[in-house]
Design a protein that fits this description.
The complex is a heterodimer of chains A (about 450) and B (about 375). Chain A is of the alpha/beta class. Chain A has 18 helices and 7 strands. Chain A folds into 3 domains: about 270 residues, no CATH class; about 100 residues, no CATH class; about 45 residues, no CATH class. The longest helix of chain A has 24 residues. Helix content of chain B is about 45%, strand content about 10%. Chain B has 17 helices and 11 strands. The radius of gyration of chain B is 23 Å and the shape is globular. Classes of the chains: A alpha/beta (about 450), B alpha/beta (about 375). At the A-B interface, α14 and α15 of A face α3, α4, α11 and β11 of B. Chain B: This is ATPase.
């Protein structure tokens, strides 16, 4: 019986790809993923044909719906890929984080004490807290910066290229995380007072899986938690921690999400800065796998730059193929100048500004909004549990052919036509409910 | 007009020159960098791109040698400029006057090719001969067309030697002459139709052009030409600390070069001048509370440097040797008031609303009343 721990980077396409390869190689018989166990009932919908990321798991208390937590997923999230693998290979998939039934209850009792804590001053050293924050939220990025990369994903790719076998990579990540936690663990623990409880519950889930006789257990968690799951204290300690936790009734469902929202803080902490770019890296990885390897890195820059040029051309700005060639060359030379084998997003942005935008910073905002962040809205299948009001709205939207999108569009409604009149009615009704879909 | 082959004129001892070329003034730094440089150099480059970036931005070498920073500002812009030249694309430095475009161009050429003298100054009267070649008419008439009758331009010399050619004020050159650069930049050859030959560029050839977008009489680059350059826009300094650092460094080095017998001005005086320039440039006071009108000129760091310098020489020769408000004020007024009607109003308003009210600026206010 073996337990394999995969410490991933939340929403990191490089981690996701390495994880897929590792799972295919390992062929586990159960997959444990960091997430709320309260949502296990809606998990099978993930492989539904009409489910399109980005989507989020919504966990809420039905008596007080304002108390809710979102767990967003994109197609390049390692957790999404792990669950997808488990469900398509018909092996059990379980969430293993501290359930929200307990967390909501704890939050309710703690809310009065939190105010007093918030006033307390932070630790003596100035640099301590900020480093600890980034170490807790995105420890792999800290390692990337130490290696001289500004982009955590490019660093991971560099590592992947050096090693053929993904399992070695995850073993190395585990070793690095152990050292990191030994150094900054104390300072970082302040930012998640529930961390001890969460990791205890994760270990409890792992022990249950072992007791049930599964032989190859795959554990997918944030890299930060990997050391706590690799070396486990005795079961008695964890049981004592988790004893007598208060409970609250919760429900879970799937909701559509956008890349714009992904950039903000989520249930895991720090958001993703460039979901559109990560989507591009993910697709590029898939493409190079299908093609059987090859020079993926140059193709990555070339495809990105071509997309940028097409976007500029749509806005009537000159962007010829010759400029694309020059921009790619400049990005690669910049990376070489900075002693990096792979051009990252910052090098590509500087090359874009210099060659395609003639030094002007204004078109870069457009590129940032539409390509780097990306405007994408997910979709959930109609079988997803939702309140009757939501179902009715979806039916109306379908009937009136008013499709929800991530971008703002200008709609001209001729109130003499019956269809447009009904559309106007719907938008006004929503406004009465304080849902400003139409403005 | 045709440029003649430069014969070295009466040899002047270096201390007699008003301003040395960058490759002579900083010869020691360039030598040290060449010795400490172990990275790969592009063909015909004197230093590797990493060493050029250390030369421009300053730093300490492994043997403890200090390299002074030449450009104080965004590091990444300089890296983009150097990477551009390494990919043999031409570089266009763009921006408002006084943002160190010619300065950076000179130092880049000095560091990369060891020679910043292959310069074409663009004016409204620049003709094709300055960019391509001219003729020695006496020889042409006597012997007919031949290579000896040709008078080469700095561009041609840069191409044959594999060095960097500099074009200053590209946008002042008339459009039809600008377009002779298109063939040079894309095919890297200079055709000589009269002799049925061409001159091809050797490795290491590149062009650095500067242009500013503020003047009247600016000829916009044609899109074909624009596409052949990588454009880097040099901004005015982002923060007040950066601007003060720039002014302080240049004032010290210029003061030494001009042999001004005065002590280095206090930091407060420089900060005062820089604050006035920034507030008038941005149109709002530093604390953001009062809106101001901006004068017609660009109050760039270069002008701040010259204001402080002229103040220093005034105090040295006519004053008591230390820089006071009365020494600064004439240079300050001269820099701000370029248009006698509009800027006068702007300056008066600034004096009455900001200078009069500020603590410790009473001496400046009194000195300005003495002038107006």
């Amino acid at each position: 019986m073996s337990v394999h721990i995969f410490g991933i980077r939340h929403h990191g396409p490089g981690s996701a790809r390495s994880l897929c390869q590792a799972l295919t190689q390992l062929q586990p018989d159960i997959v444990l993923v960091e997430g709320p166990p309260d949502a296990e009932s809606v998990l099978p919908l993930l492989v539904h044909a009409e489910m399109r990321p980005p989507v989020a798991l919504l966990v809420y208390t039905p008596d007080n719906p304002q108390q809710a937590v979102y767990y967003p997923f994109a197609v390049f999230s390692p957790e999404w890929q792990a669950i997808h693998y488990g469900l398509t290979h018909q092996i059990p998939v379980r969430f293993m984080d501290l359930p929200q039934t307990h967390r909501f209850a704890i939050a309710a009792t703690d809310s009065k004490e939190d105010e007093a804590e918030a006033i307390a001053t932070p630790g003596p050293s100035e640099s301590g807290p900020t480093e600890a924050i980034s170490a807790y939220h995105d420890p792999l990025r800290l390692l990337a910066e130490a290696a001289g990369y500004s982009d955590g994903e490019r660093w991971w790719e560099h590592l992947v290229e050096q090693r053929q076998d993904s399992t070695e990579l995850f073993a190395a990540v585990l070793a690095a995380m152990t050292v990191l936690r030994a150094e900054v663990g104390q300072a970082a623990a302040r930012f998640d007072p529930l961390e001890g409880l969460r990791e205890a519950y994760m270990r409890k889930t792992m022990r249950e899986a072992e007791k049930q006789g599964f032989q190859k257990i795959a554990v997918v968690c944030g890299a930060w938690h990997a050391p706590a799951l690799a070396t486990r204290p005795p079961a008695k300690e964890d049981a004592a921690l988790l004893k007598g936790l208060a409970k609250q009734k919760v429900e879970a469902t799937w909701v559509p999400w956008t890349y714009g929202r992904l950039t903000m803080s989520s249930g895991y902490g720090a958001g993703v800065e460039s979901p559109g770019w990560y989507q591009h890296l993910w697709e590029q990885g898939k493409r190079s796998e299908r093609a059987g390897g090859g020079d993926a890195t140059t193709h990555c820059s070339i495809r990105w730059m071509t997309q940028v040029a097409r976007l500029l051309r749509k806005q009537d700005l000159d962007a010829s193929s010759a400029s694309v060639i020059e921009a790619v060359r400049l990005a690669e030379t910049l990376a070489a100048l900075r002693d990096r084998p792979l051009p990252g997003l910052s090098e590509l942005n500087e090359a874009t500004q210099t060659v395609l935008c003639f030094g002007d910073a204004l078109p870069m905002q457009l590129i940032h909004q539409q390509l780097i962040v990306g405007e994408r809205l997910g979709r959930v299948p109609p079988e997803t549990p939702m309140i009757p009001l939501q179902q009715d709205l979806q039916r109306q939207q379908k009937r009136l052919r008013l499709k929800p999108e991530a971008t703002e569009t200008l709609l001209n409604l001729d109130l003499r036509k019956p269809l447009d009149l009904e559309r106007s009615h719907l938008l006004h009704r929503l406004m009465l409910l304080y849902v400003p879909w139409g403005r | 007009m045709a440029t003649t082959k430069t014969k070295s004129a009466t040899p002047q001892s270096p201390s007699q020159l008003l301003r040395e070329h960058a490759e002579h003034q900083f010869a020691q730094e360039l030598d040290e960098l060449a010795k400490a440089d172990t990275r790969q150099r592009p063909p015909n480059w004197k230093l590797s791109p990493w060493a050029v970036s250390v030369y421009l931005l300053g730093g300490t070498l492994e043997n403890g040698f200090e390299v002074t920073p030449k450009y104080i500002g965004n590091r990444r812009l300089m890296e983009v400029a150097i990477a551009t030249l390494a990919t043999d694309r031409a570089l266009l430095l763009y921006g408002v006057p006084g943002t160190a475009k010619s300065w950076v161009s000179e130092h880049l050429a000095a560091a990369i090719a060891g020679d910043s003298t292959l310069l074409i100054q663009g004016t409204a009267g620049t003709s094709e001969e300055a960019i391509r070649y001219g003729w020695n008419y006496a020889r042409l008439l006597a012997e007919g067309p031949s290579m000896e009758a040709l008078v080469d331009s700095p561009m041609m010399r840069a191409m044959t030697a594999g060095k960097i050619a500099r074009v200053e004020e590209l946008t002042r050159i008339p459009s039809d002459v600008q377009d002779t650069l298109i063939t040079v930049l894309s095919e890297k050859t200079l055709p000589i139709p009269e002799l049925n030959t061409e001159v091809q560029a050797n490795k290491g050839f590149n062009v650095i052009a500067t242009a500013n977008n503020r003047d009247r009489g600016v000829n916009e680059l044609s899109s074909a030409l624009k596409r052949r350059f990588n454009t880097v826009i040099l901004p005015v300094p982002g923060s007040i600390e950066e601007e003060v650092r720039i002014v302080q460094q240049r004032v010290e080095s210029l003061g030494r070069a001009l042999e001004l017998p005065v002590e280095v001005p206090a930091l407060e005086e420089i900060q005062r001048v820089v604050t006035i320039f920034r507030e008038l440039r941005d149109g709002v006071t530093i604390d953001g509370k009062t809106k101001l009108k901006s004068p017609t000129g660009t109050l760039s760091p270069a002008e701040a440097i010259s204001v402080v310098n002229s103040g220093m020489s005034l105090s040295a020769h006519f004053g008591d040797g230390s820089l006071t408000a009365s020494d600064l004020i004439s240079g300050l007024v001269g820099a701000v008031v370029k248009d006698p009607v509009q800027d006068q109003v702007v300056w008066k308003e600034y004096l009455e609303t900001v200078v009069k009210e500020r603590d410790g600026w009473k001496d400046l206010y009194r000195a300005s009343r003495a002038i107006l």
